[in-house]
Amino acid sequence: MQPTIHESAERYRQIFTYSNDAIFVIDPAQNRIIEANPRACAMLGYSHEELLATPISNVHPNEMPRMLAFATTVLSDGHGWTDELNCLTKNGEFLPAEISASVVHIEGQSCVIAMVRDVAERRRMGAALQESQAWLSRILDSAMDAIIALDTQGCVTLFNHAAEGVFRCSAATVLGLPLARLVSERFQQLLELSMQEFARSDWKQHYMWAEGLTAFRADGEAFPVDTSLSPFKLGEKRYLTLILRDATIRQRAEQKLEQLQQENARLQAVVHSELGFTEMIGASPAMRRLLDDLEQVAATDATVLILGETGTGKELIARSVHQLSRRQDQVMITVNCAALSAGLFESELFGHEKGAFTGAIARKPGRFELANRGTLFLDEIGELPMDLQAKLLRVLQEGEFERVGGATVHKVDVRLIAATNRDLRRAVVEGAFREDLYYRLCVFPIAAPPLRERQGDIPLLTHYFVAKYSKKIGRTVETISPQVLDALAAYAWPGNVRELEHVIERGVILSRAGRLDPGNWLPRANPLPQVHQREIKTLDTYEREHILEALQLTDWKVSGPQGAAKLLGIKPTTLNARMSKLGIVRPR
User: Fold this and answer.
1) DSSP code of 183?
2) Euclidean distance between CA atoms 534 and 421, whole angstroms
3) How far, in Å, are 301, 444, 474, 532 from residue 306 at the CA level?
4) Which candidate, 371, 344, 336, places its Cα nearest to that of 360?
5) Ramachandran assignment for 567, one of left (phi > 0), alpha (psi -120 to 50 degrees), beta (any other)
6) Distance (Å, whole) CA 325 – CA 328
7) Sheet holding 22-27, edge to edge
8) Closest Cα partner for 374 from 322, 418, 337?
9) CA nearest to 145, candidates 233, 206, 227
């Protein structure tokens, strides 16, 4: 008879309540403990009400960046484990902890459920065991298989960690008891015959090997094993040592190896992603979508157009694309188009020959030459003059240019990334930006989300910037007041992440007694009005409109020389995949 929903819920409630492990349900983005079981309260010395009112940062006062990094990994991967964190009890004692965590969804919010063990006592017992039973260390260190020692009565005296995993039971449940309940009758007969044989030889060191035996896990499941048996003497005591190997493990390992080989490319990308995204902090849906897009486009040479408001980290996104690309070992050259005067644009981008104009006393290579085989990042591309837009288009189409004052055509291999906070589609309509250049740049648009669309990341960013500027300034800030986090979350952040970073830097400078408390350094409740602030559409909306426009221009022809894929600069298969994802269907 299947248990009812009520019975199942009651069973899980009992497990939560009576577990020997401390269990916490936390919301790392809000620095909040949502629920905790009695064991968690006892371990930290709080009442249930006190613990739920205690911020996570009070439990991990010196390790919030590490704690948040662990929580981010759990939210990203679905699970995680660490033994590198310490918990601060109510009476001020630090407890070394082992934490196993996974994701749980509560009312649509992704939270973390963590099982925490105080490992201090276990470490002390382990040290004592190592000193008192030094003779076991050689055996345990020699193999990763299940190792079991029996006395002359057939009772278990040693049951290593691998054996616990193989038999699915703890050593405490089998030590001092006969092994007979975990092996088949034939296996038990072999053990008895081995004891007799070793006794006749006065327990001299030799071994026996047996295959095709059967053992039983603690839950009754039978499984095949191979085992070696050898005698061992310690003073006047005699022991029989078994080294067992689950015969199914090799097959599982081979299957796992095949899976790992198939996923090798993806895993390599993840490794590079971790290296490339060290400063891109956030676990919000908007940031996860952004990071997914970066990983996909970085492996290609496609031109990237980054769209976003001031302060959203467009240059950081560009650096991440470069660092994750095959050009990561080459240079990335950055040009801020808004910072150059009109007369210097062409010379800066394409270089000039000696005598090309007054003051050109020597040949000078341009940014395209300097970025050859690497990446060129054109920030504020919307400020590029119309006459230079045509020359930039030529480089993108043909990979060649001429220096100012020169006639020689130079070939370059450059991956272009551009960024702007302007609406280039409107600029095209207004005649301020070339339509053909716009399509060349907009092969893969990426929208940098404003901070107001990722407010759940504000606590993570705050702790990151506090750690960054504490180290830079040489001032220790161990605790962030909850009132500070509330004030930061209530602000609109027209200057986005850049404004938040500057505010936190100011707060760290003014902090006292290792604590970040509210003060005049916090932004005003009503920010300055935004000047010329334009709404940036989501990436999916922007991409959908872009693809639809290309399809309409090509009469919905996807492939071929006159197809939309050619116009967009991508493969037809890629275009079909994007159309499917965005729900683009040809009208009848």
Assistant:
1) B
2) 8
3) 15, 9, 35, 19
4) 344
5) alpha
6) 5
7) 32-36, 22-27, 109-118, 94-106, 79-88
8) 322
9) 227
Distances (CA, A) of 147 to 47, 54, 158: 43, 45, 7
Q: pLDDT 10s digit of each residue in the chain, 588 long? A: 455 656 666 777 888 888 888 999 999 989 999 999 999 999 999 999 999 999 999 999 988 899 999 999 999 999 999 988 899 999 999 988 899 999 998 888 889 999 998 887 777 776 766 665 665 556 565 557 889 999 988 899 988 888 988 999 998 999 999 999 899 998 998 888 888 888 887 777 677 788 778 899 999 999 988 888 888 887 788 888 888 888 776 657 766 664 554 344 333 333 333 444 556 788 888 888 888 888 889 889 999 999 999 999 999 999 999 988 999 999 999 988 888 776 677 888 888 887 777 777 777 888 888 889 999 999 999 988 888 888 888 888 888 888 888 778 888 899 999 999 999 988 888 888 999 999 999 899 999 999 999 888 888 888 888 888 998 988 888 888 888 888 898 899 999 999 999 999 999 999 888 888 888 899 876 544 444 444 455 666 777 888 888 888 888 888 888 888 887 878 888 888 888 778 787 776
Six-digit token string for 192: 């008895």
